[in-house]
Amino acid sequence: MSRPFLAALPILVRRERASLAATLLAPPMALIVTVILNLGLYVVMGRDPAAVVHAMLIEPFFSWASFSEVLLKTGPLLLIAQGLAIGFRAKVFNIGAEGQFVLGAIFASAIPIWWPDATGQWIWPAMLLFGAMGGAFWASLTAFWRVRLNANEILVSLMLSFVAVQLLNYLLLGPWKDPNGFNFPQSVMFQYDAMVPILIEGTRVNVALILAVLLSIAAWVFMQKSFIGYKLQVGGLAPRAASYAGFRESWAIWLSLLIGGAAAGLAGAAEVAGPLGQLQRSISTGYGYAAIIVAYLGGLHPIGIVISAIVMSALYIGGDNAMVSANLPVAAVRVFQGSLLLAYLVAIAFARYRLAWRPAAMRSPT
Q1: Reduced to 3 DSSP states, what percent helix, strand and coil does the chain have, rounded to the nearest 5?
Q2: Structure confidence by residue, pLDDT tens digits, 210-251
Q3: Within 10 A of 33 (CB to CB), how many other CB atoms are there?
Q4: Nearest Cα residue to 83 out of 248, 252, 267
Q5: 140 and 258 in contact (C-beta within 8 Å)?
Q6: I need a labelling partner for 244 at 20 to 30 A (CA). Which of 39, 270, 291, 301 fits?
Q7: Three-state secondary structure call for residue 179
Q8: Of residues 214 and 49, which shows the higher confidence score?
Q9: Are 84 and 292 in contact (CB under 8 A)?
Q10: C-beta atoms surrounding 223 within 10 Å
């Protein structure tokens, strides 16, 4: 591509002040564009677009059975996304929440697996606590490598997720395998006291949803009202100014990763102590990766993340419905989720930047 041609293209110039209306409209506009683009994909695939849209976007909200499952999935997505968003706003990019989610599930499962005959209402709270500790521990490995060896936290946290999955496979195929499980890679079923209480009778929605809401409130207070949250935001927006003011980057990295890891680990613990009732290989369902989309689709704001978590949960349940009723492959559902993030990034970019032509002196060939 010739240099004169490149010089003739417009460039992105940062706006002095991003429009609040454009910022708020970016998520719904991204959803609309995503739906339009994917409708074309469904037509090419030979699927009925109307049936897919109804199953994916409408049925989850108009069927109580489906909506209760939406609420069930909102819990872990909301927990993980709120934890990640704190780090993202500090420019600490934890991409390994999936591994921290798995470690949280492993740590929590240790209690009912090692003490299968234990009873008492202390068991499930202890499992949640152990799960948060497991996620924080796994995230601390990334923090150590980032602070001490200046390793990229994106790569380290992502690679550790694969290590976590292999550790899960080892346990379920070895020491933690249920001897009466017909050779399936799963642990024993957990006792009744190891299960988190049901929140809505007749559904699988449990107290993890309440925990997610409480964490969302805590995240808002932490980032908007506390001095520590202010320091994290300043470190992300203006690292040089933060350094000049005495804010240590290493402190921000440790805090951001530990918060994100603990939230992901708590979500993993709630999953094995909730709808699964045992440790399975299927615990790694992609929540950690989907939560990244949730965090950004919510504008990294605690309130926006609550809304985007519900939307993403509906897409999970709607995708399952579409695979059954409209014969949609699972890959198409993942394409929808990925294109939603891409559309949002484009929309928010145009909310913060504008197209401008290069000055004539720059466009003229030398």
Answers
A1: 75, 5, 25
A2: 999 999 999 999 988 888 887 787 776 666 666 666 677 788
A3: 17
A4: 267
A5: yes
A6: 301
A7: coil
A8: 214
A9: yes
A10: 21
Nearest alpha carbon to residue 74 among 285, 316, 243? 316
The amino acid present at 223, given as its one-letter code, is: M
**Helix axis angle, 287-297 to 249-271, nearest 10°:** 120
| Matching residue, tokens 């995230």 | 139
Asked if 85 and 295 touch (Cβ cutoff 8 Å), the reply is yes
Q: Which tokens go with 30? A: 């991204």
Contact 286, 268 (CB under 8 A): no
Considering only the C-alpha atoms of the chain, give the largest distance between any 2 of them, rounded to a whole number of Å: 81
- CA distances in angstroms from 327 to 27, 49, 60, 321, listed in the order given: 28, 11, 17, 9
> In which band, very low, low, confident or very high, does the pLDDT at 73 lie, cut at 50, 70 and 90?
very high
Tokens of residue 346, six digits: 């484009």
**Cα–Cα–Cα angle for 219, 225, 228, nearest 5°?**
80
- Rg for the chain (alpha carbons), in Å? 22
